[in-house]
Design goal:
Elements: H1 6-16, H2 21-28, H3 32-38, H4 52-66
Amino acid sequence: MDTLPLEILEYILVLACANDSHTGNALSLTSKSIRAASRTVRFRTISLTANPRRLTAFLTLYERECE
């Protein structure tokens, strides 16, 4: 994993996160390095429902990741 170039890893993560946000979330929990590498692709596919608590929680997480 440490020898895999970041560009290749990001391409793999794009493919892994293409269908739903569950995979991106699961990947981000595996390690700090995977979390950092997946940061750019984790929010490409998201699904939000009309639930104010979930929307607020998502915005909090998104803003924290953008910092």
